[in-house]
Amino acid sequence: MTFFLQLVITGFGLGMVYALIAIGFVIILKCSKAFNIAQGQFVMIGGYLGFTFLVTFNLPVWASILAAIAVAVVMGGLIERLTLRPLVGQSVLAIIMMTIALGTILEGVATLVWGGEYKAYHGALPTITLKVGEFSIPPETLIGIIVSILVVVALMALFRYAKIGLAMRATAEDEQVVQSVGIKVTSIYTISWMIACVVGVVSGIILGGVSGVMVSMSEVGMKALAVVLLGGIDSIGGAILAGIIIGVLENVAAGYLDPLLPSGGGLANVFPFIIIIIVLIFKPHGLFGLKRIERI
Amino acid sequence: MSLPSGIFQESYGQDMAILRTKQQWIWLLIFLAVLFTMPLYSSDKIMTLATMMGISVISVLGLNILTGYCGQISLGHAGFMAVGGYVSAMLTANLGWPFWAALPCAGLAAGLVGILFGLPSLKIKGFYLIMATVAAQFIVIWLILQFRGFTGGTDGLAVPRPELFGYVIKTKGAYFLLVMIIACLATFFAKNLVRTRVGRAFIAIRDNDLAAEVMGVNLLSYKLLAFFIGCVYAGVAGSLLVHYFAFADINMFPFGDSVWYLAMLIVGGMGSTTGAIFGVITLKLLDEAMILAGPALAAAFPAIAAQAAASLSLIMRGLVIVIFLIFEPRGLVHRWELIKAYFKRWPFSV
Fold first, then answer.
1. Contact by Cβ (8 Å): A289, A227
2. What is the pLDDT of residues A124-180, one digit of tens each?
3. Which of A105, A233, A262 is nearest residue B315 as measured by Cβ atoms?
4. For labelling, which of A72, A199, B79, B173 has a CA lying 20 to 30 Å from the CA of B205?
5. φ, ψ for residue A136 (rounded to 5)?
6. A281 and chain B: CB distance < 8 Å anywhere?
């Protein structure tokens, strides 16, 4: 029972981070109708930025996070302006190939700058230990859960009360109406990419604190895609719920089934894809996604 | 297609012919003659490059039928190649089948797996379908790793040299000829397929699948047929790849290659057999240039020598896709048509 609870708790923490990554994807999709496959690479860059600011420059935690966010804002803005803006109105394939190419470039840059090596910064982030009865919650997981909840609350507040958040929601609803009331849609695009980039980088710092950083960390983006599909690609609430479901399921399945499978299992890596196939066959629009009716 | 003056069509057959003038026939024969005598005067290195190009051409032609003509985007093509490659490897290495029997079986197996993962395509399209094919790639590779008793898992599987009509294909030149014969047949089939009823149905589905259905095109059977044909091509290419190295290994079919095949299609030009070939040649040459540039770069920047080559090739691959999507979204074949038109209309062209 303790083993099961432990798996559920760590899975929950992991799931919150997946949800965070998925939210970045959903924000970009809703505001600029672009499918961003490079979200996982944002996370990887975030992890390396965390290492650079926390360990190499030895900055305090708050300064490191602010610096990483600043880099993320610049990166997101540049990516949108230089590569996605010329593709407005192009086919889905063009946009997806563009974001995949961006992901490849980011991986190349990370290899060049950080040498593609495994970097860890355990203990650089503050820790809180919590013991409930027999089992303890790992401090990194707890920090992950807390930061994720904070970011989600901040985003909810942004979309509900801030003028820019309202403008983004309006853009998601109807671009022409938004333009006619004087909101610049192109700057909404840029801001949505900046926010997604910041969210990705923050989740990268959390994940890096748990398990270290390496270039292949960007594969977490694939798990986020499974989360997005399960939750419905245009629903933030769906992304949070689906993130927790997938995080817990993956951890429990890997914990119990991996020892039974030949060649070490590695179920955690393929689990998101099995979920993707199941969701696409039985419920293509996810749990809370909007069903679209097509006309000729 | 505009023809030079003085060429007349007197029958429907003449009007439909791919090659219409004597000049085109002569050029084709010269090209084939040069292609099939290449082993006589080329080095091993060039033979390897050309064989790899031939295998990629087969694979990308399949992707072109599936994505370029039928509009069903696949980002799992390397996974389908892995199915073909491993089926062929297991049949020849474990069961002792001859190569000529294993090759069609590899194509068939990949085609059937393609149908399986194409089944959701009736319900979903666009981004959702892309995710289904990405999932196909990773699930296939994972399954290959799990059945290590048959596939060798991470250790790989040694495959005997292919044997045709009692002749063991050992030299690179002989294997090149084999690949080129299959590649030429594949090109011929692909070029003609899209001019048939099936090909026109594919194009109708790509342009607007709802409208196609209203016109009486059976969406399920034609989409699955596109998946089947595209993946048969991939399976044959995978089988040829495995037999070329006489070894099957999952690292020969990475996800990055799936992306790269789609990039070849974009660079060459979607929905064009010529474009697929252009794209393969261009990007394979680029890959080769990256391999050559790696050591030079490492020597120039000794501080980052270790990671320079790896990161350079990643960045180059990404940049090529970005540049083509922004500046030449219709691919090289479009540029080629413009250049041809320029010379044909000279001195009235601008």
1. no
2. 666 666 676 666 777 777 877 888 888 889 988 988 899 988 998 888 888 888 889
3. A105
4. B79
5. -105, 150
6. yes
What the block records as the tokens of A103 is 């992901």
Q: For the beta carbon of residue A132, count every other beta carbon within 10 angstroms.
A: 9
Buried b (16+ CB within 10 A) or exposed e, B105-143: bbbbbbbbbbbebbbbbeebbebbbbbbbbbbbbbbbbe
For residues A124 and A118, what is the distance between their CA atoms, to the nearest angstrom?
Answer: 16
Calculate the dihedral angle through the C-alpha atoms of A81, A185, A35, A268, rounding to the nearest 10 degrees: 90
B167 forms beta bridges with B164
Q: Answer whether B202's CB lies under 8 Å from B222's CB.
A: yes
Inform me whether the pLDDT recorded for B90 exceeds 80: yes
The kind and range of the H/E element at B235 are helix B219-245
Residue B276 scores a pLDDT above 60: yes
- Mean predicted confidence (pLDDT) in B224-234: 95
> B65-77: per-residue pLDDT in tens?
999 999 898 999 9
CB A247 within 8 A of CB A15: yes
d(CA B123, CA A279): 12
Q: Which helix (H) or strand (E) holds B229?
A: helix B219-245
* Complex prediction ipTM: 0.86
Q: Cβ contact (<8 Å) for A273 and B135?
A: yes
Task: Give the closest-approach CA distance of A111 to chain B in angstroms.
Answer: 6
Q: What is the DSSP letter of A119?
A: B
Eight-state DSSP code of residue A213: B
